[in-house]
Every structure is written in structure tokens, then in C-alpha cells.
Amino acid sequence: MAGRLFRWPGAVRQSVISQTRAYASKSAIPTFSPSSSSELNEALDRFRQDLFIPFGLPKRQRMSMFKQKHAQRLRDEPISISISETEEYTLQPKKYTDTPTKKEAIRVIKMMQAAKDYKNFIPFVSGLWGSQYVLEEAHWQQIMRKAREAGKLPLIIECARKSESTGLRLRNLDVVRCLFFELHLAAQKAEFKGPEVTKALGMAKHAVDIMDADLPDHSYSDSSKNPKSQPLVVATLLELGAARAINDFAGKDEGKEVLGYVRKLLAVVPKGRYQNAPAGTTPRMEVHRWLHEAVTVYNGLRLSRTVHGLATDKALHRDMSSLLGEVEKSLKELLEDPKRVDKDNTYWKYARELLQG
Description:
Layout: H1 2-26, H2 38-56, H3 59-66, H4 71-76, E1 79-82, E2 88-91, H5 102-111, H6 115-118, H7 121-130, H8 137-149, H9 153-161, H10 163-166, H11 173-189, H12 195-214, H13 231-248, H14 257-268, H15 284-304, H16 314-335, H17 346-356
Antiparallel strand pairs: 1-2
């Protein structure tokens, strides 16, 4: 045993020399640029020092830090290793219980406010994924809402594009619905006019392309499980496409894009989906989800009615009008029930204004 103790530091150093370069070439430990606040800087540095670097090291070095039998040895004979050409890191005894939590990770993201803060967003998320911190669907939904409020939804699309390093795959139905609803809200804030509509439509199309590349349609034996076939997803594409046609092309359907979205929406909406509003016993969260989808479908169909050429297809126009009427009736039924309406919810107010307008 004495011989092993004597040789241990040198053995580790020799191992690191041969392993650190291989590690860095695959997935470099994230570095962060200065943010707008010292509190955020400290939080980012804590994650880097206590999580990202330890979990970025080769297994042998990482285990030497977290195994308590090595703790005293590290204190007595500190070992510094090179983690890049310009940075060294000293191995220190650590406990898994002392590493930052996912809750703290979400708090760090919520601390990001200024543009310079968001330069650290993707490196931070990549660091979490590289450290085996798998963000759950609810976490991503929180992050998406925060990104939309900050005008940073393009970062979410970039995360999805870099899914191998960020862990964000557009496969979960709730995550995809959330992303498209946030795109809807971004355009809604701009009253479906101006460059925000074009930006939102571009992001929506990019998201669909990412889903296509990740899992083609034939990968789904049940089309209802295909994220791209969700009514909310197709309706968002429709309302954004129709709004852009109205605003940028004087109502002309360039490339028959709006026509394609209308046909797709009519194909993916299950028969009778909007014949009735959710029953009074339906949980509030499900009612909100139904409302979000129904309003987006309603607005997409409403806007598309003014796009040139769609009315010439009599059968299509009939089906559009029928679905529009069905959704409108159910929305009014829901919104006019005083026991069901959440008067303080801004989206309920928007739905009412949309129907009254």
C-alpha cells in the first residue's frame, strides 16, 4: 500500500497528460464571459468550478476528487492539471451532495437579463448536459418562457440545433407545444405585424426542419405522437404564415404556403376536437392547454380567410369555415362561463378580445 501511495500523484499526473488533450478535443469545458452582475458571475463560476470542470475530467481524475478515501491524500499533496493550453485546475476533495442542483441551474438562467448575460446561455446549458444534468420537460418549458420574455427565443432554436451538446431534442410533445406557443405569444405581442412575425415564422420553420432531421415522419407509427402533427404546431405555422402574407405581400399567398398549412391543419385536427369546451371537472392546467390550442387554431383560420385564393377552393373554404365556427362556439362557451374563467389570466383576456374583435 505504501508503494501505491508514493506513486499515486505521479501516476495521476501522467494519466492526465495523456487524457486531458483527448477530452478537450471532444467537448471543451465551457468558459464564460463577464456578465452584467457580480452575482451572476459568481454563480457561473461556482457551476464551472464545482460541476463542469470535475465532470469534464477523465473518470480517474474525477473519481479521485469524489472518493473520500482520496480526500486526505489530495489535501496533503495537491495536484494541478492542465485543462486547456492556458488554464490549470487543482484537484480538490469534493462531495456529490455539495454540487449545484438543477434548481440552482434554473435560478442562474433566470438571473440572465442583459444581452451580455445571454452570451453565456448556450455554454451554460451545454455544461449542464456534459455534466449529466438532464433538464426535464418542465425545466425546458420554464427556460422557453424566460427566453421569450427576454426576446431570446433564437437561443432555444440554437439549443435544439445543437442537441448533441445541449440535450434539447424536439421530441417531447409538451416541450414542442410550449416552444410553438411561445412563438405564438411573441407574434401576438407585436399584434401579428412587422418583423417579429417574420422572425417567429422563421424560427417555427427552423424548428420543423430540426424535427425532420432528428426523426422523419416515418419514425412515428402513430401520427398523433408526431410533434409536427400537433394542431397547435400547425396552427402556429398557419397564423404566422397568414399574418406575413397579409403584412408583407398584400394578402398574396407566396408559394401557396398558407394553403399548405390550411390543408395540413384540417388533416391533423381530430374530428370533433372542438365541438365542446372542456367539461367543468377538467383540471385547470388541461383547460389552459385546450384554450391555448383552440385560440391559435381560431386565429390561424381567421387570418387565413383574408389571404387571396383560398376561397376559390369551395370544398376547402367550406371545411375551414366549419372548423372556424366549431372553435368559435366552444371558445365562447368556455369564456362565458363565470365559474370557468380566470379573470386575472392575461391569455383569457386576449382570447375574449380576439373573439369580440
